[in-house]
Amino acid sequence: MNFFTAQEQARRRTKWLVLWFALATAGTVASLYVITGFLVRWNGILRGVDDLPWMGHEISLWTAVISGLAIPAGSAFKLMQLTQGGGVIARDLGARRVMPITKDFSERQLLNVVEEMAIASGVPVPEVWIMDEESSINAFAAGTEPANAVIGVSHGCLNKLTRSELQGVVAHEFSHILNGDMRLNMRLIGWIFGLLMIAMAGRAILSTLRHVRGRSSGDSKSGNGYLLIIVSGVVLWSVGSMGVFFARIIQAAVSRQREYLADAAAVQFTRDPYGIAGALKIIARLPQQRVLSPHASEAAHLFFHGPVGYLFPGLLATHPPLVKRIHAIDPSWDGDLRKGDGEGEVNMRKPSAPVDAAALVTPFSAMDLSDAALVRKNMASRGSIRTVAEAKAVMFSLVAGSGRALVAKPVTVLSEEEQAAFDRWWILTRGMNSAQKIAWMDLAIPLLRQMTQEEYRQFREDLQAWTMGDGQVSIFEWMLHHAIDRHLLGVFDRADVVPVRWHDMAQVEHAVAVLLACLCQPSMQAAAWSRCAEEFWRRFGRHLPEATADFRKLQESLTLLEQTATELKEQILDLCRWVTLLDGTICNEETEIMRATADAIGVAVPPRGA
Amino acid sequence: MIGLVVVLGLVAVLFMWVVGSYNGLVVARNLFRNAFAQIDVQLKRRHDLIPNLVETAKGYMAHERETLEAVIAARNHAESARTAAAMNPSDADAVGKLAQAEGQLGGVIGRLFAVAEAYPDLKANANMMQLSEELTSTENKVSFARQAYNDAVTSYNNKREVFPTNLIAGIFSFAAASLFEITHEQEREAVKVSF
User: Fold this and answer.
1) Are B137 and A353 a contacting pair at CB < 8 A?
2) Cβ atoms within 10 A of the Cβ of A560, count?
3) If you average pLDDT over every residue of chain A, what do you get?
């Protein structure tokens, strides 16, 4: 399945879910209303008044109104929390962030595997978290969009799986990011939280009561009141739980389907069915363990595999049975779990001593093996970016080398490490074309996420200063700022969720025309625009409005295009690709505008999607 | 008169077809040229890791000077091939040479690790483990980036070879592009059955 289709499907399913959850909420509110009515009447009977009606009391009305407001409010609160990105969930689950400078061997390996899968799937490298407490094998992906996504794995993944099995598990999580499942999952968590809150309120009442009761026992006067409070606590708890129960059924039904898709995508990314199948077999072979974190139950559907032992496994399981999943990937499997792949026992890897990262970058002093020039060259351009300072320096050097007038001298104050890195990258990136520069930019961006809020503000200011170093903003610089906005805003500022407003080309054709005009401009072909209009007519059956290549207008247009439906975005991007290829060459400006457009309208372009 | 119109019509159709095919070829060529940048980034990293690998190994296997020198030689050869290919990714010869050089490099590195089996201290060395992990990862990244590149090259070559576009390709000399396939020498000679 095309991943655009998968994303669109996820979004369409979300609409249905809203309806179902509205029903669940309405059901909960209605039951509370009815039950309060009964309670009032029962209370009346206890006091000797037995002609009270069943319904329509002020108190039951108020209960209905309050719960009817509280449930959506609770959901909204949780959803707002969740839009801050996947890091919030990861922290809730008791996970710890893995820093790219880690010296631990298995953490290093995990980061490498994540980077590999980022290349294979065309998704930006997400943050990586580890659940240290979990010795079982599990993993999750969280976040509202690829830019603020995180991937978390349990500690068990690191010491019980082989490298290729780990790769399979990580690839599965990448599919959830790419196919838009994460956003769906985040919504589910938010909505369920509203219902869960009612149940939690009931439980809270009961537990407070136990303390109060303990202190003032023997006070028979208020016995009736106690009973009423106990009963209302029980009612809140049970009705809330019922709501949660139905919500979970919906959640589970959606989640099960997405899991098969993710397993299939994992095979597609790794091109190795044995990795993920092996991981699933090991999980099936191990004694079942629940995830320990108290927040795990509301996030059950996030995980790589679900817990077993529910009361209604068919209805509530968020994941298809392991055996079925393994069969879907590896149809030739005979169903025998005892036969491990190669080894009979779970493959335990030896814990390793921490590595001194500094030792890895030892200057190459094998003078007798090679000539001095090689040594200097190697020192000058170590082909990796590992620290934040280096990542910053890469960004500065890319900006410095892109303007019309080259800015060879630092514009802002650089630390010693940054200066050294800048000098190296300045030489390395100067002669590169845009595609190469963008490749390096993409390697540097994930590291920038480690900055503190303070550092980030300073970095943006500095970058602005570098950008204006030559007095003007080049297209490359403009693109770079867009890329940073796309990938870092969600981390440091709250990125607003962009609503989908436009579904039809007619609504956005002026914006598209501006974009196309800008793309036609670098090639300077008069014929380009008319061919563009022809193609536009052929594809959309509409006349392309006149537009001029104006970069200020382009900015507005991209903001507008961000609010279009995913499928339309795909068509627009495809048309842009067609235009850049029109004159037979992709010049640097065209590469840059294309990339900025993809970043600005929020579409990840997978390498093999074209 | 009708004859003239028909002839002119045919000429116009022919001209449009020539333009269309030509542009199609150019488009396909640009797509794979762009995809090469991703491979290039990873190969560079691979080449930069190798001197560190040799440096670490040197301390333990002084008697294997020959192997180490072979690694460095292969690395330098591959690095110059990389620089040449990065200049012009549509030069099939340069890309072919790079793939070959990478294959040789993979072969000698494989030999180095095979020899390292005999040195338990080296195998247990934390830096060595780390470096071998980094090399594995870089190789994986190359192979994932390679898939995108090879897809693009295949679609270009297909376009170039099918009739009648091959006529256009011949006239405007669109050269065949080379897939980036790395075959490790050692993989080829690995099949040995003994009883």
Assistant:
1) no
2) 18
3) 75
